[in-house]
């Protein structure tokens, strides 16, 4: 197959290739880049000079040499720009400011009030987003490329391409063009995505791109799943892929908020945890100021409350059932678990791993299972902004030399 690429397109592909090499290494040199990419030295030098001029790359001194001129070392400028990431969950919202490597320089978490009416919830949520993003903007350090944009992650069915929230099942919000609403208030780009996708992107980026196929489980009031395939988020035909929380694990099961029966998140979420406590003879934890339900349950379990411990074990078993299905269907290199329930890793991880030994097919039994960064969703939302703006060069294809 013949692919026609004009000079401008060739330059952008090569620029993307060179930037990716520099970004993925602690330090490198022009000669190393030439050897890695296959581009000739003159082309590499020209592209590196352009990246230096854009302040995306820095020269930091000389490297060692086995003979001849010492190479000039190059380093990616992580502070070339910043982005704001907002993680909206049912009970709380976390806002971060991070640089191009996802290093956080500001973080704030606020509790969200519950509202039975969807319209009132949307109104109050937008008000809080505006307040929290304004505070984050004030905390953003100066940089060559300034604030690249704002990423907002939500726990529901979201179409990233158009910025529309199709459905938030635990809040009953549907067909909400949140991107357009927020874009009226900010001069920088605004991106809307599913929380699990953002968590997956964070985990992928922070594993130095060594893992190309990864699944991220975001477990809290509901369950979302983000999927990385060959180094890219898998979004599906309509951008709605990853709704494994609503796969059926019990043919005649409990009714889910989505209208289906027997959904995974009805057996492996915060809602099910409270049910397992009752079934184990325990009492629902009393509301405590500043503490989430999971934090209260975890505190009791850590202090040897047997009903709470049994509840976590049951939850871990059902998490394991769903994860085994995902492993058998996707065969990823790694699985990460985030969300509020990941804080109970001490109690749930052994149960998940035990279930996987019985239910995952042979090649999936050794797939690494890790706990994600506590702020993975918010950081991932910010990193998606950086990827879509500052690093929006073409990523497909190989470097092309003339």
Strand content: 15-25%
- Given as residue ranges, the uncertain stretches (5+ residues, pLDDT < 50) are none
Give the SSE string.
Answer: HEHHEEEEEHEEEEHEHEEEHHHEHEH
Number of strands: 16
Mean pLDDT: 89
Structural class: alpha/beta
* CATH top level label of the largest domain: Alpha Beta
* Helical fraction: 25-40%
The 3D shape can be described as globular
How many alpha or pi helices?
A: 11
The CATH homologous superfamily of the largest domain is named ATPase, nucleotide binding domain
Largest sheet: 5 strands, mixed
Cα-based radius of gyration, to the nearest Å: 23 Å
CATH 2nd-level architecture of the largest domain:
2-Layer Sandwich
Within the largest sheet, what's the order of strands? Answer: 6-5-4-7-11
Q: What distance separates the N and C termini? A: 19 Å
Give the CATH topology of the largest domain: Nucleotidyltransferase, domain 5
What can be said about this structure in brief?
The chain is α/β, with parallel strands linked by helices.
What does this structure look like?
It is a single chain. By secondary structure, the protein is α/β, with parallel strands linked by helices. It has 3 domains: 70 residues, Winged helix-like DNA-binding domain superfamily/Winged helix DNA-binding domain (Arc Repressor Mutant, subunit A, Orthogonal Bundle), CATH 1.10.10; 132 residues, Nucleotidyltransferase, domain 5, CATH 3.30.420; 161 residues, 2-Layer Sandwich (Nucleotidyltransferase, domain 5). The strands form 4 sheets. The protein has a 5-stranded mixed sheet. Helix 2 crosses helix 3 and helix 8 packs across helix 9. The radius of gyration is 23 Å and the shape is globular.
């Amino acid at each position: 197959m013949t692919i026609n690429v004009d000079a401008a397109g060739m330059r952008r592909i090569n620029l993307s290739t060179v930037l990716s090499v520099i970004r993925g290494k602690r330090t490198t040199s022009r000669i190393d880049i030439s050897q890695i990419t296959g581009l000739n030295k003159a082309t590499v030098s020209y592209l590196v000079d352009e990246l230096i001029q854009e302040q995306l790359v820095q020269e930091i001194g000389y490297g060692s040499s086995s003979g001849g001129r010492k190479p000039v070392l190059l380093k990616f400028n992580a502070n070339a720009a910043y982005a704001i990431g907002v993680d909206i969950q049912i009970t709380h919202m976390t806002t971060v400011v991070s640089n191009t490597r996802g290093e956080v320089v500001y973080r704030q978490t606020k509790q969200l009030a519950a509202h039975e009416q969807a319209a009132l919830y949307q109104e109050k949520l937008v008000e809080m987003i505006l307040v929290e993003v304004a505070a984050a903007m004030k905390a953003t350090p100066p940089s060559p490329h300034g604030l690249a944009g704002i990423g907002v992650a939500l726990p529901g069915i979201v179409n990233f391409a158009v910025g529309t929230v199709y459905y938030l099942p635990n809040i009953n919000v549907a067909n909400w063009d949140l991107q357009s609403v927020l874009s009226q208030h900010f001069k920088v780009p605004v991106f809307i995505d599913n929380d699990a996708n953002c968590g997956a992107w964070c985990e992928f980026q922070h594993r130095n791109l060594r893992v190309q196929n990864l699944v991220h489980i975001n477990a809290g009031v509901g369950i979302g799943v983000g999927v990385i395939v060959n180094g890219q988020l898998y979004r599906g035909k309509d951008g709605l892929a990853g709704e494994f929380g609503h796969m059926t694990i019990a043919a005649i099961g409990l009714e889910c908020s989505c209208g289906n029966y027997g959904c995974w998140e009805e057996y492996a979420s915060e809602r099910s945890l409270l049910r397992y406590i009752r079934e184990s003879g325990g009492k629902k934890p009393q509301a405590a100021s500043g503490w989430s339900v999971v934090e209260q349950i975890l505190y009791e379990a850590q202090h040897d409350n047997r009903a709470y411990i049994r509840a976590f074990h049951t939850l871990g078993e059902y998490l394991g059932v769903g994860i085994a299905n995902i492993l058998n269907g996707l065969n990823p290199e790694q699985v990460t678990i985030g969300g509020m329930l990941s804080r109970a890793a001490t109690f749930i991880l052994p149960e998940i791993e035990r279930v996987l030994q019985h239910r995952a097919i042979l090649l999936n039994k050794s797939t690494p299972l890790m706990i994600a960064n506590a702020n993975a969703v918010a950081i991932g939302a910010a990193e998606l902004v950086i990827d879509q703006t500052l690093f929006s060069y073409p990523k497909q294809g190989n470097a092309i030399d003339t």
